[in-house]
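Forgive a beginner's question, but would it be possible to get a protein, spelled out as residues, together with the matching structure tokens, please?
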Amino acid sequence: MPISRPASAVQWARAFISPALGDRSRAVDATAGNGHDALFLAENVGPGGHVYAMDIQETALDKTRARIQAAGLSDRVTLILRGHQDMDQVVSGPVDAVMFNLGYLPGSNRSVVTRPETTLAGIRAALKILKPGGRLSVVVYTGHPGSRAEAGIVAGLLEGLNLKEFNVQKMVFWNSRGDSPELYFVTRAGGKIG
């Protein structure tokens, strides 16, 4: 089948996460932003599932709330005004999927960005609550100040995970310019998907 245009980083992340989701699944949008991933997760966890959407900006949660309400899926989503570094304190595990889109809230103040230290803690928290067979996606946008340091921290953490417990894949848009997003796909061992 011919592809009319290249897939975006977010599309690749959703394609990776999708097999982990089904009715009664539990998922986390660790960086709610404009609510696109929260909506994707809510549509795919089914009527018996639940999504936790986290962000440190009320504006992001307001946008997410509006998007979820417009889709009629409010009963499937809990909005949490808190940083993803606290994920394992506010979301009881295990969960089937976690999605991170690092950087800043599109269309807002670009000085409010994810930071290496909270991102590191957030990914560690996500790994703690990810169930066997669960999937974690991390999209690292690299075009803003401080993003290279954050990308390095994410790479170092994920590279060091035990292969017997986690499978980690990295994807880049190889023929793109230097600030191409970096994508990480993590699967926890020990479970069936599908």
